Amino acid sequence: QKEVEQNSGPLSVPEGAIASLNCTYSDRVSQSFFWYRQYSGKSPELIMSIYSNGDKEDGRFTAQLNKASQYVSLLIRDSQPSDSATYLCAVEYGNKLVFGAGTILRVKS
Amino acid sequence: NAGVTQTPKFQVLKTGQSMTLQCAQDMNHNSMYWYRQDPGMGLRLIYYSASEGTTDKGEVPNGYNVSRLNKREFSLRLESAAPSQTSVYFCASSEHMNTEAFFGQGTRLTVV
């Protein structure tokens, strides 16, 4: 069974702080990793994709990948109340995307 | 540019009834997927189609069938609905199997 593990939260951070979301996966051969944001009652929306070890930055978002330790993380700088949502980590396993259960993020103003 | 469009948005079925969920994408993607999302369990893959003309089972295929009608359309059929199939269903598509997937707006299905 291919697994993607996330802390369900909720993770609460004050407005303007850095939110750090983590994800671990079970298969070393995975090559593609994605972060999605899902607002309550809405569909998942792609935020970031990352394929290589290291950091990838896009605006206030930074994805970090460490294949040796089998974890991928998402940092959100200058967190805003509008960032409050569930964040889903997705890992490619043999050409299938497997999702974690998601971490609830709450940004307090 | 509509992206991925699912119909219907909401549906209530009685146990034993059948229905088909429709999905269409206009991004010329090769791969399409059906997921279900239940509280606390994340998204689970029901069926997928790597390319036009092919379909394969995902993690939770029992009770479902699919048809890849053409490159644009991928439908999900419940032959005899059960209360355990109450869920939110999402269709998604991607250019290829290991690239970014884009989701439709979801179908909220209740089986009573």
Description:
The complex is a heterodimer of chains A (109) and B (112). Chain A is mainly beta and 109 residues long. Helix content of chain A is 0%, strand content 56%. Chain A is built from no helices and eleven strands. In chain A, a hairpin with a 4-residue loop joins strand 7 and strand 8. The termini of chain A are far apart. With 112 residues, chain B is an all-beta fold. In chain B, 0% of the residues lie in helices and 53% in strands. In chain B, a hairpin with a 3-residue loop joins strand 4 and strand 5. The model of chain B has no long low-confidence stretch (mean pLDDT 95). Chains A and B meet through strand 5, strand 9 and strand 10 of A and strand 5 and strand 10 of B.
Strand content of chain B: over 45%
Based on Cα principal axes, name the global outline of chain B. Answer: globular
One letter per element, helices H and strands E, the order of chain A comes to EEEEEEEEEEE
DSSP, total strands of chain A: 11
Beta-strand content estimate of chain A: over 45%
Helix/sheet category of chain B: mainly beta
Give me the strand/helix succession of chain B: EEEEEEEEEEE
Distance between the termini of chain B: 36 Å
Main interface: chain pair and counts: A-B, 22 and 23 residues
Low-confidence stretches of chain A: none
In round numbers, the mean pLDDT of chain A is: 94
Main sheet attributes: strand count, strand direction, barrel closure of chain A: 6 strands, mixed
How helical, in percent, are the residues of chain A? Answer: under 10%
Please identify the oligomeric state: heterodimer
- How many individual helices of chain B? 0
Cα(first) to Cα(last) distance of chain A is 40 Å
Supply the helix-strand structural class of chain A: mainly beta
Task: Give start-end ranges of low-pLDDT stretches of chain B.
Answer: none
